[in-house]
């Protein structure tokens, strides 16, 4: 008993120690997370370096329980923050120009288009933009070409070779492992399953990928050529012939203005700012500038536009911060539509789809919002395809950027027959007792036997029925005959420009345009309303309790796999699929 008393006392003591330590830690963290006052000196530069992947919404700074060794996290700016800060800088008399630091550019083309448009508006406000980089990828150059002047390191390189997309196929690996995919799909272009059943692209997939790349490439050429005062044919020839192979070539063909070292670029910036060559340049990073208070746009609290950010894979249940959980988002939409202060909804979608069931659950809630008299506007980001299009299709108005990847109206189901793998590779066998002929009908995507023909027929029937529902949802939402939708569906992927021609999109534009349209539909004048962002952010304590044990594991896997972590995520996502899927072709990455 004495021993137990000591043990209990020790446990209680440790609990109190950690609890008090946690409270102190939280106090320090929350205090440190408060935005410090930032003052911008007159005659300053705004420095923008977009060298990290960026979500539409971004992440707030402050206490980060995922990394207890470095708990105070800087805010990660999202697309809306970058756009807002450029708009703020255009009106800020202390900001004279923007310095674009170009290196990697992991943003999607649709995101870059939205940023580029704001940079164009910044120049129209009478301010300058200078861009500089050492090694410019095609995406980095696309962004940098908006600048008044663009420079490159004398030993640097500009990559201009045309756009391409490479897909990875797993069929031969699965054959060697004796794993047999059991695949069902609706739509000739629904190519999400191709990596598991083919060794190369089908002709349908090759056609849609080629036409998508052509459309994005045409926009790339037209945009850059205009910015650099070239004809489209001139710039096309530069890319077709790979004429830019050195920094000198880049100057010769007027791709950049000159080859300079960074200190020489600083001299040019001093000249533009009108300061002496020995004076220090006053520059503020966009993350720091984010803390500067902008124009007060707060309107009437009772007039709200709810902006719902749907980013990531669509999954059943609640999901997490990186996915769109059907139940969680349906709850958010339900709460928003029941709030009599909500006068319009903007659904910002950046998703290649996922669970067909989860997509339908969210579609239903958005339909009820419209029936309640609340205007719904869908704004498509980099990708709003398959399930991402499903949840958008019933909106009053759908917007997309020209380079948005959308469509992919189709569904598929996929299971893995592991019988031979278990038997021949692992020496594992199975035996079953059942009460009916369908007692062992698959309830998991991992099978220990091959499907029977009647089971295959049942699953294919389910896929076909869901596809038919998908077509009807789009037909009703877009006021089109179902037969017309079928012609542009079948799982085919389109750019925003192509989708608009086919009636799948109404307006070419970004998130700001979507909010403006929602405000007009709600009858608001400028300054009459407030924007509320959803889903609501988790409180630090909630995030801590949920993340304990997860972060270290994820970091270890990332470190171990390095550049192959992306493929690991794809395979992990595959193993988590339940039910029929409405997903974009397995992976589209334009480089």
Your description of this structure?
The chain is α/β, with parallel strands linked by helices. Among the domains are: 44-160 and 244-289, 2-enoyl-CoA Hydratase, Chain A, domain 1, CATH 3.90.226.10; 304-414 and 441-548 and 556-583, 2-enoyl-CoA Hydratase, Chain A, domain 1. Helices cover 44% and strands 20% of the residues. The strands form 7 sheets. Strands 12, 15, 17, 18, 19, 22, 23 and 24 form an 8-stranded mixed beta sheet that branches. A 6-stranded parallel beta sheet has the order 10-8-7-6-1-11, sandwiched between helices. A 3-stranded mixed beta sheet has the order 9-20-21. α7 (203-227) crosses α8 (232-240), α12 runs parallel beside α13 and α16 packs across α17 (482-488). The longest helix is centred in the N-terminal third of the chain and has 32 residues, at 2-33. The model is unreliable at 31-35 (pLDDT under 50).
